[in-house]
Amino acid sequence: MQTTELLGRVRRLEIRSRHLVQDLFAGQSESVFKGRGIEFEEVRPYVPGDEVRTIDWNVTARLGAPYVKRFVEERELTVILVVDVSRSMRFGTAGAEKRELAAELTAVLGFAAMRNNDRVGLVLAGERVEHFVPPARGRSHLLRMLRDVLGVVPRAGGTRLGEAARFVLRTSRRRGLVFWISDFEDLLVPRDWNVLARRHDLTALMLRDPRDEALPAVGWVELEDLESGRRSLVNTGSRRVREAYLDDSRERRRAAERTLSRARCPVIEILTDRSYLPVLMRYFSARRSRRVRA
User: Where are the alpha helices (DSSP H) in the chain?
Assistant: First the structure.
C-alpha cells in the first residue's frame, strides 16, 4: 500500500471513529474502563482503626499476627489492543473485510481510551507477534497504531494466538485492560487464556463473516485457504457439503467460545455485515452497571 493511500485511510478512520466514540459515550461523564478504581499494592501489619474487611486471612494465619491488604487509587489504566493480522482476517464477503473492521475497532477503542487519558498499547499477532507498540498517550501515538494495523504484512500465514497471549503476559506486568480483536480461527490452549484473564481484564471481540458458516449453493467453486494457500474444488450445490462446512465452522467457533468462557473472558460477537455500535454500547452499559454495583 502506498504511503499517501495509507495516510488517507488513517485520516478517514480517525474522523469516523471520533464521531462513533461521541455516540458511544454520549452523556456519560465517567470512564467505563476503570473497573473498581483501586489496585492492590502490599500487605502490611494491622493497626487499630484499620477496616476489618481488609484483613488478609491467609497471611494472618501464616505469620500468626493480623495483616491487612493495602490498596491505592488507580490513577491511570493501561489499555492493550491485541489485533489478529493473520491472513484469515483478509476474508470479507459482506460489509468490510475482517482486517478493516479490526482497524476501525482499534480506532474506536483507542479514542475511547484517549478520551479518558489512558495509555494505549498495540500488539499485532499472527503466527507470531508481528509488531508491538508500547503503551503511551496522545493523538499522534494512536494514529501511528492505526497506520500499523492497516499497513503491516504478516511474515507467516498461520495463526498462533497463544504466542501473543504469552507475549502480553511477559510485557505487561501491571494489570490492564486487554481487548483481543480476532476471528479466533485457531485452536486455543486453555492455560494461556486462563492465566491471561487472571492477570488482566480481558475481553474478546470475535469477528465473524456470514460466509464463515454458510456456503451459497452456486455449484462447483474453487476455494482457497487464506492461511495455507491450499486450493480445492468444492461442489456447493451439494447439501451434504454445505452442512459439513457449517458444522465444522460452528464447532471451531464454539470451541473458542468455550475456552474463553471458562477463562471468564467476555466474548463480544461482531458481524461484518452489521453495525457494531449497538453491540459495544450494550457491552459498555453492562460494564458500567457492574462497576456501579461494585
Answer: 3-24, 57-63, 98-115, 139-151, 161-171, 190-199, 239-262, 277-293
